[in-house]
């Protein structure tokens, strides 16, 4: 193998290509020499430089690095005042840029480089511009990679060796190969580097700082170097060559990820069922990693000749998946309305074409999108063009039982995988049957009970808090119930359902119950013991539903009314450090809020709408006040699971669940039979949820004593606590 055997593009753009995985690592695997001139010197630049050099070192190679100090205006002025101070000032500027490692990967990479400096494999020189006693910074970015056969690749451009340049900024490098008739361009770069390195370039001065190299060794050399760091961080198969000397571009389980036995068994079952099936796993039990492990298993079986389509409900869920997808050695195409990959449509078209034409090393691709994007005409047209092996992976798969999505479950996908914590659709047997018919049987059922027992989720205490409608709210509730009763119609299957007018009225009634005034009064009472605590969630819910063409939820004035009242109560009256967490905040703002919430110093409580339904990961939640709940088991089971995610220092969680009743329990005995009948469906549905929550709570006896009071007042026994159709289209 030589550099000539690697597919090399003439240009790489940081937001279109994974430069480390697509360029540096494959080339350096075959190299014996790496000469690099970068912009500013920093520990971040060292970390990025380290990617791929392990293979070069194993080849007996050498690395030469030229960098420029980052000088402040004060540094430059000090140098002007006294030339003899120059070296000291430059040294201080360089040392200032040596930061502590942010994670275990950076720690290993800096340790590797420190060892290479100590062993004389990596040499560093510092360059700056000096002309007539004026000083500036050397900014040229270029590099030359050479193999043992005399092949050379030269590159230059705007790419800095930093995390920001690699991932955030839109920067490019131009590439020239000595065997492609570009010898002159390559030779010019190599001569320029040699001139700079040997301090022969006019106006450019070079300092060989032995003190700087020793500083790096002293700071970062902690252990024997980990030459497998690239494999551990990125996964192995992108670099490892098979017997036919082709790159394995398919997914693989990272070395630092150890799947649990139940995850492996689920994948085994899926394989036995011809790679079709359902992973029914409680929130927080590793559904995503199990799904990615399954993708890796199938891809290996079909020699990485596979189109993988992953579909999620919301935009931020796509991004959460992407974080894990890249760990499994995949470079996904990310498709949704505001994707950072502005050219995702072109990428998808190219990937499908390359697979169809069996282009070398391009028969595997992964496309991830939202439900809304998946259902678009463009994506459906592209899917119909797929000719090779295709796998459909659907997260929160219960949504695909809906008519508009179920009709898109194409036979084009030979391989199928559904992921869901609650696959059975609420009050929709037909939709549930479609899911089982298309995806197959369950390969695993991992319940929330089991997850708690096996310590995959935390234990919890459950406190049902009774709230009641006031006189005006009860009057309005009765009026709406009466009007809803006049809107019942028979569907095609003979089943009673609501007319469109009835749905609007049911939504209005759900809003009424969700925003009951007594909830604010009770919240103030029960949150007071936590005034100085952290990691609190106040969940207000929302009554607005996700429309077919949406991939993020919106809120309106009705939804914001309660959240604004809660914000005023906690933030102004009780002087707590709070922030709202709704769709008004964009992805970046949400990430900042999640970090501040986890830290807890500047933010005690999040006041949220929909986040527990949307799959937002906020593991640090320790106390949750759920003001507005739902009669849909899928939703309230998922909400509970997300509160129970494991987190450091979280021994158990506490859930305060506001149980909405039409009237105080003392007033129930005076009700007529007709009045009782109108209220029973709401009461039973609230009890149905509360009974499930109390069942496995640490304080089960205490919680059930509250529920017993409700059952006694309404003369309900346990056998009657089942969901009743209340035409609840909200909460």
Number of helices: 27
> Largest sheet at a glance?
9 strands, mixed
Which structural category do the helix and sheet elements fall into? alpha/beta
What is the 3D shape? elongated
- Average pLDDT number: 83
Strand content: 15-25%
Percentage of residues assigned to helices: 40-55%
Total beta-strand segments? 24
Which stretches are poorly predicted, pLDDT < 50 over at least 5 residues?
Answer: 159-170, 236-248, 543-548, 550-556, 723-731
Keywords: ATP-binding, Helicase, Hydrolase, Nucleotide-binding
InterPro entries: ATP-dep_DNA_Helicase, Helicase/UvrB_N, Helicase_ATP-bd, Helicase_C-like, P-loop_NTPase
Protein name: DEAD/DEAH box helicase family protein
Domain Helicase C-terminal: 515-684
How would you portray this structure in words?
41% of the residues lie in helices and 19% in strands. It is α/β, with parallel strands linked by helices. This is DEAD/DEAH box helicase family protein. InterPro entries: ATP-dep_DNA_Helicase, Helicase/UvrB_N, Helicase_ATP-bd, Helicase_C-like, P-loop_NTPase. GO terms for molecular function: ATP binding; DNA binding; helicase activity; hydrolase activity. It comes from Aceticella autotrophica.
Layout of helices and strands, plus pairs?
Blueprint lengths: L10 E3 L5 H11 L1 E10 L2 H7 L3 H6 L3 E7 L4 H9 L4 H11 L7 H15 L3 E10 L2 E4 L4 E6 L4 E6 L5 H5 L4 E6 L5 H15 L6 E4 L2 H11 L8 H6 L26 H12 L3 E6 L5 H15 L4 E7 L2 H11 L7 E3 L8 H13 L7 E7 H4 L2 H7 L6 E5 L8 H4 L8 E6 L8 H11 L2 E5 L1 H6 L5 E10 L2 H15 L2 E3 L5 E3 L1 H15 L2 H11 L8 E4 L17 H17 L4 E4 L5 H13 L5 E4 L14 E4 L6 H11 L8 E10 L11 H23 L4 H15 L17
Parallel strand pairs: 2-3, 3-4, 10-15, 10-16, 11-13, 11-14, 12-13, 14-15, 17-24, 20-22, 20-23, 21-22, 23-24
Antiparallel strand pairs: 1-8, 2-6, 4-5, 4-9, 6-7, 7-8, 18-19
């Amino acid at each position: 193998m030589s550099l000539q055997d690697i597919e090399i593009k003439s240009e790489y753009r940081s937001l279109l290509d994974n430069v480390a995985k697509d360029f540096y690592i494959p080339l350096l695997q075959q190299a014996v020499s790496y000469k690099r001139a970068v912009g500013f010197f920093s520990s971040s630049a060292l970390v990025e430089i380290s990617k791929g050099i392990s293979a070069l070192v194993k080849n007996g190679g050498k690395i030469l690095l030229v960098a420029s100090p980052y000088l402040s205006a004060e540094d430059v002025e000090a140098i002007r005042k006294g030339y003899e101070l120059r070296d000291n000032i430059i040294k201080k500027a360089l040392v200032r840029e040596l930061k502590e490692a942010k994670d275990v990967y950076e720690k290993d990479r800096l340790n590797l480089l420190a060892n290479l400096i100590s062993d004389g494999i990596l040499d560093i020189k510092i360059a700056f511009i000096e002309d007539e006693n004026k000083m500036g910074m050397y900014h040229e970015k270029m590099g030359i990679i050479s193999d043992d056969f005399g092949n050379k690749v030269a590159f230059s451009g705007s790419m800095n060796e930093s995390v920001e340049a690699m991932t955030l900024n839109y920067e490019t490098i131009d590439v020239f190969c000595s065997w492609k008739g570009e010898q002159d361009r390559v030779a010019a770069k190599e001569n320029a580097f040699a001139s700079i390195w040997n301090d022969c370039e006019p106006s450019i001065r070079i300092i060989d700082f032995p003190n700087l190299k020793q500083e790096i060794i002293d700071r970062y050399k902690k252990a024997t170097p980990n030459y497998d760091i690239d494999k551990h961080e990125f996964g192995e198969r992108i670099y490892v060559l098979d017997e036919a000397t082709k790159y394995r571009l398919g997914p693989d389980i990272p070395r630092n990820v150890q799947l649990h036995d139940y995850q492996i068994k689920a994948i085994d079952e899926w394989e036995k069922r011809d790679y079709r099936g359902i992973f029914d796993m409680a929130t927080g039990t590793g559904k995503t990693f199990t799904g990615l492990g399954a993708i890796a298993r199938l891809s290996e079986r079909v020699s990485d000749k596979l189109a993988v389509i992953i579909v999620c409900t919301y935009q931020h869920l796509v991004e959460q998946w992407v974080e894990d997808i890249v760990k499994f050695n995949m470079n996904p195409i990310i498709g949704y309305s505001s994707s950072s990959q502005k050219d995702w449509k072109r990428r998808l078209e190219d990937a499908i074409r390359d697979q169809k034409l069996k282009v070398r090393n391009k028969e595997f691709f992964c496309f991830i999108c939202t439900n809304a994007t998946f259902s678009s005409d463009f994506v459906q047209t592209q899917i119909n063009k797929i000719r090779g092996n295709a796998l459909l992976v659907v997260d929160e798969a219960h949504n695909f039982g809906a008519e508009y999505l179920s009709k898109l479950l194409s036979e084009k996908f030979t391989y199928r995988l559904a992921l869901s914590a609650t696959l059975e659709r609420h009050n929709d047997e037909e939709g549930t049957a479609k899911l089982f018919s298309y995806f197959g049987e369950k390969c695993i059922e991992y319940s929330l009970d089991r997850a708690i027992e096996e310590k995959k989720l935390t234990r919890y205490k459950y406190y049902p808090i009774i709230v009641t409608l006031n006189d005006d709210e009860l009057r309005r509730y009765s009026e709406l119930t009466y009007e809803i009763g006049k809107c019942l119609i028979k569907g095609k299957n003979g089943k009673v359902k609501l007319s469109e007018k009835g749905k609007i009225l049911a939504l209005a009634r759900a809003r009424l119950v969700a925003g009951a005034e007594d909830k604010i009064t009770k919240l103030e009472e029960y949150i007071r013991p936590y005034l100085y605590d952290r990691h609190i969630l106040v969940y207000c819910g929302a009554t607005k539903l996700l429309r077919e063409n949406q991939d993020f939820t919106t809120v309106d004035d009705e939804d914001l009314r309660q959240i604004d009242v809660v914000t005023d109560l906690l933030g102004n009256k009780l002087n707590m450090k709070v922030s709202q967490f709704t769709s008004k905040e964009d992805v970046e703002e949400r990430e900042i809020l999640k970090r501040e919430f986890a830290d807890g110093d500047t933010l005690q409580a999040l006041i949220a709408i929909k986040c527990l339904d949307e799959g937002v990961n906020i593991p640090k939640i320790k106390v949750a006040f759920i003001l507005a709940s739902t009669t849909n088991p899928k939703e309230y089971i998922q909400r509970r699971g997300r509160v129970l995610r494991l987190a450091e220092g979280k021994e158990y969680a506490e859930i305060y669940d506001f149980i909405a009743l039409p009237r105080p329990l003392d007033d129930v005995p005076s009700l007529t039979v007709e009045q009782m009948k109108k209220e029973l469906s709401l009461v039973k549905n609230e009890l149905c949820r509360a009974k499930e929550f109390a069942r496995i709570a640490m304080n089960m006896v205490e919680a059930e004593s509250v529920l017993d009071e409700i059952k006694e007042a309404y003369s309900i026994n346990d056998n009657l606590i089942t969901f009743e159709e209340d035409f609840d289209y909200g909460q």
